[in-house]
Structures are given as C-alpha cells and as structure tokens.
C-alpha cells in the first residue's frame, strides 16, 4: 500500500473541483491539507464550546442559579443551530426555507438572550 493509494480518495475529488473552477489541479494536495487543517480547527473549537457549555451548566446547577442555566442553554441552542446552518447544503427551495427559518430562530434567540437579563435586573 503506497501513500498515493491512501491519499487519492481524498485528493481526487478536490482535483476535479479545482479543474472545474479553472484552477491548476496540481494544487489539489495543498488545498486538501488546508481544508483538513481548517476542519480540524473547527472541530476542536466545537468540542471546546460544547465542553464549556456543559461545565457552565453544571457550575450553575451547583450554585442553584436559574438565570445562568437559562443563558448556557440558550447558548448551546445557538451553537447547535449555527452548526446545523453551516453544515446543511442548499439543494432545493425547501432547504433554503429551512435555513431561512434557522436564521430567523437565531435572531429571535439572540434578541431573547439580550432582553431577558435586562428584565431580570
């Protein structure tokens, strides 16, 4: 088993996509490496955010504080909605409407997360 046989399933789709866009396909390995690094960084940030959210919820539960629990839960919902928004491709009008509803929901949740703490003080 050579390295080329191992990496070709990753590089060939990138090579074809670059050729379709009129870019020299010799850059496919570099683009593949950069995309892999970017996806790895994104995954680490997502895991870190989820872990911080759970830690915040557990800390707030330990203090019996309701407002921080609600804040961390809203933050968690916002993160999940953003991940859903960026991962789901637009394939038809139904998907576009679904993404529009996610953006609307994010706007409502953002407004609630700004207004609720001010009402409680």
Brief digest:
The chain is an all-alpha fold and 121 residues long. Helices cover 86% and strands 0% of the residues.
The total number of structural domains is: 2
Instruction: List how many beta strands DSSP finds.
Output: 0
What structural class is derived from the secondary structure elements?
Answer: mainly alpha
What average pLDDT do the residues reach?
85
Please give the share of residues in helix.
over 70%
Descriptive report:
The chain is mostly helical and 121 residues long. The chain has two domains: 8-64, no CATH class; 65-121. Helix content is 86%, strand content 0%. It contains four helices and no strands. It has helices at residues 3-20, 28-63, 66-87, 93-120. α1 packs across α2 (28-63), α2 runs antiparallel to α3 (66-87) and α3 packs antiparallel against α4 (93-120). The longest helix has 36 residues, at 28-63. The termini are far apart.
Layout of strands and helices, then pairs:
Layout: H1 3-20, H2 28-63, H3 66-87, H4 93-120
Helix pairs in contact: 1-2, 2-3, 3-4
């Amino acid at each position: 088993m050579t390295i080329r046989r191992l990496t070709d399933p990753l590089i060939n789709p990138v090579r074809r996509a670059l050729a379709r866009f009129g870019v020299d396909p010799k850059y496919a390995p570099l683009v593949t490496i950069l995309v892999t690094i970017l996806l790895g960084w994104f995954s680490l940030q997502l895991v870190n955010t989820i872990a911080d959210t759970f830690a915040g919820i557990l800390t707030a539960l330990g203090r019996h504080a309701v407002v921080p629990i609600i804040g961390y839960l809203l933050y968690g919902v916002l993160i999940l909605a953003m991940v859903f928004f960026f991962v789901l491709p637009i394939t038809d009008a139904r998907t576009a409407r679904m993404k529009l509803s996610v953006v609307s929901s994010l706007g409502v949740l953002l407004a609630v997360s700004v207004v609720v703490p001010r009402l409680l003080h």
